[in-house]
Amino acid sequence: MSEQSNATGVAQEVKKAWGFGTGSVSAEIQAAATQIIADSRLPGANLSALLNPFLNRCLPWPFRATPGISVDTAGTESAEFGSLIYTSSQDLARVPADALACAIDVHQTLGLEELRASYEKISQIKQLAKTPIPATPKTPVADVTMGIIFAVDSTIPLEKIGEELEQLNKTRSHHHWVDGVVVLSRGTLSYTCQFPHQPMGDFLPPASGGFMLAPMYVHIFARPHSPFALNRMCSILFPYLCFFSPGMPSLPYKELLADAPQTGMTIAPYQVNLKGELVPVPQELRFNQFFLFPLSFRVEDDNGNELARVQYLPWQEGGVVRVIGKLPIEAFLIFAGKDAMGQPIIRWQGEQYSGVIPLSRSQFVQMAERTAKQSRGMHVKPDPRPKWTVEKRGDEGTSSPFIARMWLGICHMRDQALRDPKVRDEFDVAFESVITGVESVRSTAAAAITLYKDHERKVASGEISKIEHGVTYIEETIDRDLRKLTDEVISTTSRVMKDRMQAVLRVLKTDIGFLYQKQSAFNNGVAKLKPQNPALADYIAQTRTKWSERLTTCRTGLEHGTWVLPKVRYETQGSTIKAVEPMVDGQPVTEFVAHISDRLNCFVEDVIVHALQARMPEGISISEIPVAKRPREIVERFQPALVGGGMPIWKTLYHDSKFEDH
To answer: 356 with 213: CB under 8 angstroms?
Structure first.
């Protein structure tokens, strides 16, 4: 009991040292953010004069925060900043660069031009010369200037801020990047790091002396959850200050972010190369089959027991060795060349990773061969790589709205919404049946249209028709084939709607079974759904009124033998013959099948994306890309969006426009 009391006492002392009370640190920061926002909107408010008192209340000795400029030993000066955080016993208007820990550029409202100007100011202040600090092998010490852009509001969404940071980063060394953007009314952008196959963690600015060639991704990461925006800033700033001035008491990370959601969105990934530079991850390494099925071998003892599994992960300008099992990674790296042992080794939850080393796939194979030759009592066996089968589904690519939206787009939204592999697999099985049916309806409708239009043309040209002695002769009929194709469009669409879509929606916990019931049950279903999901209830009601009830009537007539597509009729006009198109429910058959196929495409996309939207992680939703702004190469309709981040969130609305035009 006394140990617990001592621990509690120590925790309270740490809180006190950082200027917090005995309650929740997270809640106290949230309250401060709310007050800053309110006060900043008063006439004549100065955001720096609101931010700095909060910081000075929190920061322990020897730190303080004031407006000012920074100057290095060569006399080079920075621009003016709303908040500089530095070590000193007194407030300074000119802060020595050696003492400067963080520069915060402050805006009431952040726009694109303000973002670019702040980026330039922070990049320049990071380049001020600093006196090298003595090496401290056992105690990591930070010596660079952290740079943060701070605002209450923004005229651009968080996602667009992230995309602009990605472009600006291309013009600067990673040592001069902005470390974070905080918009109190929207959320934050910062950097996270991630080892392969492991969760993300916050990334702090690397020391000026260089960058450890660690096998990790660094991401620009956007987080909504505006009530915790100031908490997020503190969660990277306060730990960094502890590294900048070692010996300070460290606030527990969890205290700063208690109750804060962890979800967010990756904007851009980076990797460290062999020169120690953070550079964008090339497209071919973002979706690399060798990460899914890495080149690997296993090591067994004389009894066939597996001692380790060794994998090769391709990387910028080289590779990474990953070892899972009992054997130390050094047992293999010794055979990987003289540079392989020169980088720190990462050991994490039973796995071991080399640093980024100059190792190609062929050199990895040579490493395996040398291991096999020079190791006693161990047997190296290559892992078989799976054989891939690539099937061609058609002649269209992602420049086609159908492929980009019905295949790629829905799969992208599925990746965001369904994190449980089991649920994702269930969805994939059900969706495969839906998309196969949709493709069948689309191709069958196209075949029916082509069949009739070709026949109409041939009849009009006299190629298969003639008039002799007042008698009309048609040498080629299409009635049987046209009926068959029309029947297939009706029956397959009905199966997709009634059976296959319900299977997908069951996986997504969405029930629209009442759509296929009699009118009274349908009305009850709509009334029951409306309070919980008014948008979907209205969409389903309009679907039934505008087209699905027609489809049901046609299907019922086919099944009960009370309706069949009429034959093509022919009319003579002088010496010419004209085909008269059969009608389906008062609509020419070619228009009918095209309309049904189009409505099915819209229904499947809209309803599935609506159901996926409801399954998105907290703080993440879906935004619709305007038609004019969809890239020609990949004309996807939807993209993930941060709730409250500034992008408009898609709302499910029934529309009559064609699939390609919407």
So the answer is: yes
